[in-house]
Structure prediction request, 725 residues.
Amino acid sequence: MTSNFSSTLRPLALLMAAAMPATMATEGMWQPHQLPALKGQMEQLGFKMNANKMADLNAFPMNAVINFGGCSASFVSPQGLVVTNHHCGYGAIAYHSTPDDNILENGFLAHTLAEEKTPVPGYKIWVTESMTEVTDKVLAGTDGLTDKVYFEAVERSKKALVSQCEQAPSSRCSVYTFHHGASHFLMKSLEIKDVRLVYTPSMSVGKYGGDIDNWMWPRQTGDFAFFRAYVDKDGNPAEYSEDNVPYQPQAFLKVSSHGLSDEDFVMVMGYPGRTNRYRTAAEVTQAFEHDYPQAMVLRNELIEVIKQAAPEGSQARLAYESTLAGLANYAKNFQSMIESYGKSQFGERKQADEQALLEWIAADEQRSAQYGAAKQRLDQLIAQGDAHAERDMILGYLYYAQLYRTAQSLYRLAHEQQKPDLERKAGYQQRDLENFTARLKRMQRGFDAQVDKALMLHLLERYAALPQSERVAALDSFFALESGFDKTKLAAQLDKMYANSKLADEDSRLALVGQSVAELNLSRDPFIKLAAAMYATDIELENQQKDLDGALLTARPAYMEAIIAYKQSQDQLVYADANSSLRVSFGSVKGYSPQDGLWAMPFTTLEGLAAKATGVEPFDASAKQLQLISDKQFGRYFDKAVGSVPVNFLSTVDSTGGNSGSATVNADGELVGLLFDGVYESIIADWDYNPATARSIHVDSRYMLWVMEQLDGADNLLQEMSVVK
Prediction:
């Protein structure tokens, strides 16, 4: 593959955006540099800002948007105050919770800077400063290379670009791949390391409705929390110190107290995770008929294992609350994916669309020569990757067994540190050691030996049920599984391993960071021994994956070129799949019809929240909140059109995981809410966008302000923020 296609890809995408019909305007998670070409469509919906400025990451409002470690967030004061979702801060809130001071359950408010909670190890925020296309640099010298060699050449180039970029103080850089390998952008961010918890509402607000209401509408969840970014006295990012001062961002978002109405323009800025809208029909079948069903079952099993091993109210349950929330969220996500797939004609449509593409290619001699072999080659590679799907899933889920995961990472670090830094695997370079150590420290608050042991026993039992051809000799040998599975015997072996391991102790874990392979090979820790026994197999499987990934890095862009040319011929839009980089989506406040005969209104209210209250989690609204609602203590947040204080609202903006916490702004760039979920019918939008049912759910800024003022007395934060009346 050459870089010729990638050098023309961005102009082609912009051309497609300019030609996009207005009816399709709300689909797409756009790179900021594409927004000027979308100006017309945005203005038709009510956009009032300067679209050209939206492309400038150092100008308002983009410079107020931040990456919050897998979620999105934004600055809302000149003193580094950050707002994101409650569920995005869930791990940090749980970290600071104890049975005697359970702020996860009861909430927390710092009335002064001195009362703010100290940082959780490894919790950081990143302020994106620039995105520069580096496709030619990444692909330089790769002509003629294939498979693993191609993959490693691309990785070397990316690591070199990152290393050069990070020479700047406090910069954290990454190279993001777009259109599945066709183009690459270098993102430079300011990394802020001192991030403190400022305010979280109680669980009865922040997670109202819990797993029952997850992905559902109507919804009445106050999914928000506040943190603060700190720097040293010179304004430079620094590790935690009592001498640090609040960070002063270049810009921050004003918070609207007047809110929105039906059909109003809204825009979301954040870091959406992954979408799969350009996958093949074969990949759709594999995902929805095999991968998702199996992963859903396994996640539900792990939830039950944790609940059995960690009784309600125990320290162990508190330690695993964040893990349980993550498992439950994706289990329900997968369930919805499967149901939506079964009810829709998505599979058949994908097949038909693919056939139409192939016929379009075959209809022209030049197109046949250019694109003819792309699909066949890609199908072969996809089938190769799916050959061991169940085995790979179970081995991957062993990640939840923390002592094994820790031992693996420590043993791998020892091997990687024998190499020059740029030749090390990503995650084990010098730039990664700070985060590596932080994970080992953070583990202490989210670990229980009995739970960990129960998880490992269950996963090994699942592994042992695989066909013999899918088994791994090293793992079989270590646990004596060659002659059959004996659960009692395996449980006894694990009991002994956990009893004799020191990896559950923080100081012991940290003492192993930086030890050599020879030193670790002398270790008597049973999990280090397991990691050593599995190392050769891990490397072999990883090299096989590199071969496949390298081949896909050339095959997918060739197929994407055909898709883009085909869509261009039909005046259809083209945008890159989400990949955790900074994106912008826009649309309108709007309800939808979840099924025949029903119309879902776009706003929920305080009265709807009270109507759901049962006094039992997750509908355990406090007596104070219910009294305020009964007394109609609405203050300035009452909306005449809605007839109450709006709690959550729906919009047509295109979103996915990672958008959680994203700033939702109005036509003037004022914060009107935070995106935190999607409706049940739209979960499949990661694969198949349907404008009739694709709806994002946001917590309304008026409800956030009402909770802060009326329920929790967060007057200090209300005064600090710029609240627009």
Observations:
- The first helix runs from residue 4 to 18.
- Residues 1-24 have pLDDT under 50 and may be disordered.
- The chain is about 45% helix and 15% strand.
- The first strand starts at residue 65 and ends at 67.
